[in-house]
Write a structure and sequence with these properties.
The structure holds 2 protein chains of 2 kinds. Chain A is mainly β. Chain A has strands spanning 9-13, 18-23, 32-38, 45-50, 55-56, 61-64, 70-75, 84-91, 108-113. In chain A, strand 6 and strand 7 form a beta hairpin. Classes of the chains: A mainly beta, B mainly beta.
């Protein structure tokens, strides 16, 4: 699996924007960039994904670098509920027997201060 | 609630005992995944099913572990002769298909403590 690199932790104040970076220098042309997050004592939940273009949904925005070697998850106004571990994951179209599985890494622990 | 459910939520057992966990996926989802998560780490893939067929098993899944998905509905994960190193959160997820656009929906997990 192609690997991603994320900071171990980040902090933000409530109602401020948060930019969570992810490096994926070995990304292949068919890899999608997915973000999941895991709230305390819960299973992970899907946040957003993209291939080349920036993406927006109700939860967040995903900004993808032109060379696709990095991306940034943007939370426009952090709330206390956004405190979680955020995982940046690459998913390939075909990777032999690993099709469909997610490789999580250790993610970024986001702390949101009131 | 129509999400992924897991039972039990917590299990405490003594070393050497067998344990079985159950996962009920979202009803129309044909893919079901099992992951294991230890403290401070991200979830690690164990195995997955497409309908009733088990398509892949991780090297983490020793011969003491077995998973089934009879009739392509719910799934069970059994651990025989548990060891203290098996203590972890066991997560189940399901998806509609396996493509890169298909998100996985996770259950709340079963936390196993082996004494």
């Amino acid at each position: 699996d192609a690997k991603t690199t994320q900071p171990n932790s980040m902090e933000s104040n409530e109602e401020e924007p948060v930019h969570l970076p992810c490096n994926h220098s070995t990304i292949s042309g068919t890899d999608y960039i997915h973000w999941y997050r895991q709230l305390p004592s819960q299973g992970p939940e899907y946040v957003i994904h993209g291939l080349t273009s920036n993406v927006n949904n109700r939860m967040a925005s995903l900004a993808i670098a032109e060379d696709r070697k990095s991306s940034t998850l943007i939370l426009h106004r952090a709330t206390l509920r956004d405190a979680a571990v955020y995982y940046c994951i690459l998913r390939g179209s075909y990777r032999g027997s690993t099709l469909g599985r997610l490789y999580f890494g250790r993610g970024t622990q986001l702390t949101v201060w009131p | 609630d129509t999400g992924v459910s897991q039972d039990p939520r917590h299990k405490i057992t003594k070393r050497g005992q067998n344990v079985t966990f159950r996962c009920d996926p979202i009803s129309e989802h044909n893919r079901l995944y099992w992951y294991r998560q230890t403290l401070g780490q991200g979830p690690e893939f164990l195995t997955y099913f497409q309908n009733e067929a088990q398509l892949e098993k991780s090297r983490l899944l020793s011969d003491r572990f077995s998973a089934e998905r009879p009739k392509g509905s719910f799934s069970t994960l059994e651990i025989q002769r548990t060891e203290q190193g098996d203590s972890a959160m066991y997560l189940c997820a399901s998806s509609l298909g396996a493509g890169e656009n298909n998100e996985q929906f996770f259950g709340p997990g079963t936390r196993l403590t082996v004494l």
